[in-house]
Structures are given as C-alpha cells and as structure tokens.
Amino acid sequence: MDNPIFTHRSIRKYKGEAIPSEVLRRVLEAGTRASNTGNMQVYSIIVTTDPALKEELSPAHFNQPMVRQAPALLTFCADIHRFSLWCEQRGARPEYDNFLWYVNAAIDAMLAAQNVMLEAEANGLGICVLGTTTYMADKITETLKLPRGVIPVTSIVMGYPDEAPPLTDRLPLEAVVHADTYHDYTPERIDALWAEREASEETKNLLAINDLTNLARIFTEKRYPGRDNIAFSKAYFETLKRQGFWND
Amino acid sequence: MDNPIFTHRSIRKYKGEAIPSEVLRRVLEAGTRASNTGNMQVYSIIVTTDPALKEELSPAHFNQPMVRQAPALLTFCADIHRFSLWCEQRGARPEYDNFLWYVNAAIDAMLAAQNVMLEAEANGLGICVLGTTTYMADKITETLKLPRGVIPVTSIVMGYPDEAPPLTDRLPLEAVVHADTYHDYTPERIDALWAEREASEETKNLLAINDLTNLARIFTEKRYPGRDNIAFSKAYFETLKRQGFWND
C-alpha cells in the first residue's frame, strides 16, 4: 500500500456505494488517535449520511454536487460543550467559553480531520475538504443542531472515488519552509517560486476561460474577492460569539 | 511498518542525534501534500534547530525541557503574507487581512502539521505538540521574526525518542462521533463516557498528587484555570490583530 500522504488527491465524483460500517469506524478511530489538547478531545465529528440532511446542507456548501453525491458528509467541530458538561457534573467550574479555546478546539478538530482523511484513503475511499464550512457556519450550526459550545471548523465529503485525477502541483518546498527564523521574500524569489505554476497549461486555460491577464487576479477577483472575505469574516465571528467562544 | 496513525505517542525525552537532512526533507514534503485552501498554501513552517534560538523560545513554551533537548522545533504558522506579496507583484489586490483568512490559514497549517507528525513517526522520529504556542504567540512572533500576515498556530518538537511511553487512553469513539446531527449528552451518558478514565490508576495517582477530589477539578483548577484562559485569549487575539488578520 502506498503511503496515502504522498498520493492524496481531492475527489469530486463519487460512486453510489455506501461506506461499510466497520470501515467507517476504523476511519473515525484514526481521528481520535491524533494529538489533542490535554487529552480533553474538545472536538466532535458529525457524520451525516441521511440524504435529506445532506440536501439541506448542500446550499451552505454552495451546492457543490459532491455534497449530495458522496455517501457521507463529515463536519468537524470545535466542541467545548461536552467537556464543560462533564466538569459541571463534577462540581468543577469550566471556563472554556473564550477565544483561546476556540483555537485549541479547532486545532484538535483539524488534527483529527487529517487522520480521518488519511485513513479513509488508506481504505480505498476518496475525500474532499469543503472550505465553504466557515462561510455559512450559522446555517450548518442550525441544521446539525449544534448546541452552544460547538462550532463547525471544516467538513469533508467521503466515499468511493468515481474519478482518478492527477496529483495537484505544489509550490517548491522552499516556498513554505524557513530555517531557524522567517526569511522574507524578495521580488525575485516570489517570481521564482510561482514560475512553474504560472507557466503551466492549466494556468493558460484558466486565464483564457476567465479572460484575465494573470493567475493572481483569478484569486483576488474571482475565487476569493475582498467583499466576500469581509462578509464571511463577520458572519463566522458572529457565529463564534453566539456559540459561546468569546468572553469580553 | 505499523500505521503511525494508530501507534502515535507524544515523546517528551529525546536523544541528542540530529535529524538527517534527507529525512527532514521527506517529512516536510509530507506536510505540503495535505489539502489546503484553494491550493494557495497559506501557511509557513519554521524549522528551528539553532540551540541559541531554541533557548530563546524555551520560556515561551513554559521551559518544557524537550524544547531545548529535541534537535528540531517546528512552528506552524498561518501565512497570508507570501501569497499577498505575489498578488501585489502581479498587480492584483489581495484582501486576506481578515478573520476568515486567519481560520483558513490556520486550517492549512494544522493539516500540514498532522502530515508532518505522521511522516516523522513513519521515519522513526518522535514528536510532541506544544499547546503553549498560542499562549505566548507575541514572543514567538518576535523571536522568529514573523512579518505582518504571519502568526504561529502550533509548534511541535521532533527528534529520535529516548523513551517508549504507552498508548494514551481516549474517550470511547461514541463520545466524539454523532450520527447525522448533534445528539446532546444526558448526565448518565457523560458519566458512562468518562467512567473508565475516572476509575483508572493514573487518575487515582493524579488526585493524590494534586490533593483534589475529582479529575475535572485538575483541569479547571490546575491545568487550564479560567484566569489563564481569559488572559491568553486576550493576548492571542491582540497578536492576531497586530499581525494583520483583522479588519473592522
């Protein structure tokens, strides 16, 4: 078996086949083996397989077809609620309703998520991360009936792949790794790091389709424009406060 | 080779031996293969091996001895700076200086971190996550010379293990997994989920050492008391604003 770390591809087309319960269980167990804050496991994983619920969640994920098509949608949540309930039940006073614990709990959720994704792939499943989770977290919170103390951080779809896409390119390793301290980038280095991607056939096609002069503008004008970033920032921060991760 | 997902232990004692550069490179490459937001790779990994710098960072990590002892300290940062530089250099207008992109970039950083940890373990290395990273992020930011647009999210120490601790217990899988929607916990269920841990020898020893009546109080009164949570929340949020991840 190849190491799934080095063969990961995002899968956007799935077969109808359900995930056998013993496979799903092993994949979820993998999530729980990840490092987590103080072994408090301040996260929850909501595994949605009910077609009506996936349908209801679909608009929150911008109607990406894979949300309906994949047999399972997993929502990874920061969760201080369960641990706080236990504390209260033992006469201890939990004070995790603050920003630090949003970050701690989100870290726990993400480390578990990556283990789940890798073990899924090791078992022949495909996955795709849905970056849309933070955009409409309020709608997801409502549909998944998340109580105060729980907020979605990311979601993945999971199922048996019905496509075999190539490996995605990455920036050279030197782009993201710094020795000892941060070494800022000169304009020449920025050019060099993006050179291969900018010269690729994929980029040429994207520019033709979008009628834009360079790849950076596809990101700033089409994919992640400023007005959306600001609107989604406000909305997610409101959800974070409403769900009890803020303490003025 | 066992699947490192299921054999992970946090290592707190390390041999002096350095990590061979080809091993370190493979481990870091593993990080870059993780899913990331729009393939923008909005994270950086600072690999600190210089003993003087590790010494300087040690107080920010509460002087945990492994920070000095392990040959490498890796700081995973949310980084919108590099991508924004590239956009500006192409005449595109980056608008990632907001909370949404803190969350997106932190997610990228954490998914990469988990891949790095697993690939390290697959190569005979040990790791331990340092939850202290968010506590004194301002000090770390200064020492690592992080520019605006870059903030630490988590750190790990890495090196060859000089101990072989047992696997850590986890709550039953049912504690963290919910079918379809969130199912809130009854008091009876909370009792059942924590029963095994509360009855363990480890818990009995902890209670004796701390002179406390139950395990929950060790968390709320000793490990993560409210006053610390609130102070660290404020400090990290200030760092987040200062580093350019906030837009009122």
Structure overview:
The structure is a homodimer of 248-residue chains. The longest helix of chain A has 24 residues, at 99-122. Chain A contains 12 helices and 5 strands. The first copy, chain A, is an alpha+beta fold and 248 residues long. Chain A has helices at residues 4-7, 21-32, 51-57, 65-69, 81-89, 99-122, 137-143, 173-176, 187-199, 201-210, 215-223, 226-242, and strands spanning 43-48, 72-79, 126-130, 150-159, 177-179. The mean pLDDT of chain A is 97. The first copy, chain A, has a 4-stranded antiparallel sheet with strand order 1-2-4-3, with helices on both faces. The radius of gyration of chain A is 20 Å and the shape is globular. The first copy, chain A, folds into 2 domains: 4-165 and 227-242, NADH Oxidase (3-Layer(aba) Sandwich); 173-223, no CATH class. Chains A and B meet through helix 2, strand 1, helix 5, helix 6 and strand 4 of A and helix 2, strand 1, helix 5, helix 6 and strand 4 of B. Strand 1 of chain A pairs parallel with strand 5 of chain B, so a sheet runs across the interface.
